[in-house]
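step 4 of 6: structure.
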Amino acid sequence: MGRYLLRRTFVLALSLIAAGLVLFVLLRLLPGDPSAALLSVGADEAQIAAAREQVGSDLPIWMQLGKFLSDLARFDLGKSFVSGAPVLPEIMTRLSVTLPLTVASFLLAIVIAVPLGIVSALRADRWYGGLLSAVSQLGIAVPVFWIGILLIWIVAVKFRLLPASGFPMKGWEDAAGAFRALILPVVTIALVMSASLMRYVRSATFDVLGADYLRNARALGASFPQALIRHGIRNGAVPVISILGIELASTLLGAVVVERVFALPGLGSMLLLGIQQRDYPTVQGVLLVSTLMVLLIGFLADVIQRLIDPRLRETVAGR
Amino acid sequence: MSTKRFTAQILGLASAALLAATVAQADPAAVIRVGSLYEPQNLDNTAGAGQGINEAFNDNVYEALFRLNDDGTVAPVLAEKHDVSADGLTHTFTLKSGVTFHSGEPLTAADVKYSIERVTAETSKSSRKKSLSAIEAIETPDDKTVVIKLKSKSISLPYNLSYVWVVNDAAGDITGKEDGTGPYKLADWKRGSALSLEASDAYWGDKPANAGAMFSYFTEAAALNNALLTDAVDIITSVQSPDALAQFEDTSAFKISEGKSTTKQIMAYNDRVAPFDNVKVRKALARTVDKKMLLSAIWGDRGMVLGSFVPPTDAWYEDLTSVDAYDPESAKALLAEAGFPEGFTFTLETPNYDPHPITAEFLKAELAKVGVTVNIHVITANEWYTKVYQAKDFQATLQEHVNHRDVGFYGNPDFYWGYNNPQVTELVASAEASDSDAQQADKLREANRIITEDAASNWLFLYPQIVVSNTKTTGYPVNGLNAQFFLRGITKE
Amino acid sequence: MKKTTLWIGAILVGINVVIALLTLVWLPYDPTAMSGGRLAAPSWAHWAGTDRLGRDYFTQVMIGARIALTVGVGAALLGGLIGTTLGVLAAFAQRGFDDALAATLDILIAFPTLLLAMLVVAASDGASLGTAILAIGIAMSAIIARLVRILTKRVLAQDYITAARCSGLGWGRIVLVHVLPNIAPTVLVAIALQFGLAVIAEASLSYLGLGAPPPNASWGQLLQSAQSTVFNAPIGVIAPGLALMALVLGINFLADGLRDLLDPERGAA
């Protein structure tokens, strides 16, 4: 396991460097010069040239790359072309919105999905098993922003129960305000996410129920709940953890849309604005940080899977 | 000059008196919560901050020698006296005394010189840089006097100076902080969400009618509207779609005001390339578009149809909607004369934000009636600057032009739309060298008539400037010229 | 009960397919014609009212069905094909290649569909249905590949594979006989989910202003422009949302029903 961890960590670091390079190249394939974000109608040639010099888009691409890499080695994500502010502190501020949003949604989704998913599989023949399954079907069939728009319309505007959008200017210093601001977005994401999670949990439960080891365990005299807890959850959890990893990652990235709907100053809105303005340092910085987080999640999911299911280890070691 | 200043002062007194009457029940400790779609990118208007910074800071945090009032007139602010030499090339300004910056330092002539040179500097990204190009030298004989020497006469100098924030020359980089003389100082700024201002105790003039303001920024119009509906803000500065207004019209809790904007949506042709180098083609397309219908589709019964590039708040405005009025039959005839009886096909570069895609669809349907096929090509704002504005690699494009007094763009043959009429270029240049406002207006009016007869571009409509507030909030500017939003007179019960 | 799911799914998808095909030859109104007042309420003439420009909204929702199906089918085919191939290859590959591929997949998954779409759009000079399909398909293939890789490894860890290997069965046969049939039900569920998610992803791209331009207005674009008028014309938000939900629901039901048919053992459990 120790060697595996070491190797996996090495791969993680390589991936991050590769991701950085890929990002750098891809961003520069986009049409439109980044200096345009600094201009307005009426700008003359000299102003255009000065803007290009300021953002460095007048340099040959290999020099831009060199600067990017040397900055990166010093954990310097550069300064925004548009605002001139350093990118990394800005990302940290934005994370104070996006991370709680993502983690809270994820936890809420698990709390909803795991018990309901298992129940809907175990009781698939009862009316409530069927109903749960049907509701989860509805949940995965809608775009998250549609739920957001409807929730704002009904909860925030019609009944004035919660704020429709925004985040307190003082951030978490105004804890009550920040908390209230995140309720609707969290519920929006969790509703949609728990629906798809529930399906995976249900599917995994079915897999477990039909598996030989469960039958063997019962034949050896274990009661059904005993067999399920001792063997079922352990086995069923393997694919679910993989899915959880992917879901957590996609929630993080999916926050772009939800932050837009609820006008939250998170990482997603920073990325979207950065893309619109071709603000390379901002886009690179946000994507590098979010890639890092997603890679870390994948890393953790893999490690946990191995801990639970030693057979995965054996296949690799055995060949 | 001095009579004019006097009138402005009387007007100022009158409005102050008016203000005093309404202030009676207002809460002077109130903080006005403003919702806006225009977040400043940084806090320096010469560093590509966008229109949001003008909204938040013009005349609120920074003052200038002159102010562009909400009615389009220009009034002195930090300039107490303005004298012009007989040849019109030397302007002498005397500064108000007792003015201090928020940092506590007094205002001096050196600050003014520094501030003007910030805008004209090599690295300045101000869209106003060119308008100050007539300045040859700035001298500061003493702390209270600024002398501006010009290469050529410039009737618009006071107007142009109204864009020049007076910044403390010791302030340094102001992309993340401020040091102005205005009635408000920056209290806090949170990128991506909000900016708050508080009244400055040391302000030289009358105290504002409120204690401060909080600008909240949104990217979706729907979220902005919701904020007002749910009482998260008191006022929203520019409503982008009339359809959302219904929710504010129904109730006595909200007030809708419609002012005159200077934002014009136009379809600009590349006048250098065929078929748009042919005036008959341009006139034909102008006559094919039912602008009334377009305006009502996009803005309902608000805004106004344009016959030329000049909006009614410019002194040289006249109604030219009859020059190429809606008439598809004569358009067909013109196209036939121009050699396109069967029409032609062109690509319309369409910015990807409202209302351009809708307008593009509308134009496509309209122009199809005379056999002209439009290929809609959607581009981002950046691509627009690179491809259309800089490389001039386009056939036609949609764009909104937001500036006040900007017909002069047609006097520049190198401008992106490539309109080149020496007579217009001459008129625009000589208008600037006028001796009086009336003379300037006459010349620009004449130039605009020629531009209109040439159908240089297809001027579609003037956006309405719609401000919606709750009924408790009063005293805000309704026209918002050049995206300004004066806070000092706003009161809240 | 199982059959019911299949039937409901088939009917929902069938309606969408019929409408999508119908739009190729007939529409109630010219989609660009301003045939009614602005934001008119639903009526006999305009079943879903009209939009801001007075154009028939039902017509636009009908066209949306065609767009959604095109994007969904295209992206699911592309993503399923690339994803399954990559996943199986990774599971069989030697350690180094497996790790490299797994890491690449992780990066791809970490890479927002949003930016991928922008890049594809940029590289091909303008947004179109094709660019949306390509971007969503690539993003989807990474997710499928990751799942297939893990599932395949699980199958390969089973004793009977070792037995089959010992009896001289080639890897190609093992994939065809043991791996694919074993992983098919789960992968099918995943692809079905991804089909629905592709439709939703396209809607999200359009909502953010990165989708196919008019006149190929997708449901997402309709939702975006109707969002600010949800108070006075809620039908604008409700109609495309319900249509989208019906299609995705239908696809998922259909997939579920099919899985039960393919895997009767599970149905019995």
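step 5 of 6: annotate
 - Residues 2-24+55-262 of chain C form a domain with the MetI-like fold fold (CATH 1.10.3720.10).
 - Chain C has one domain: 2-24+55-262.
step 6 of 6: archive
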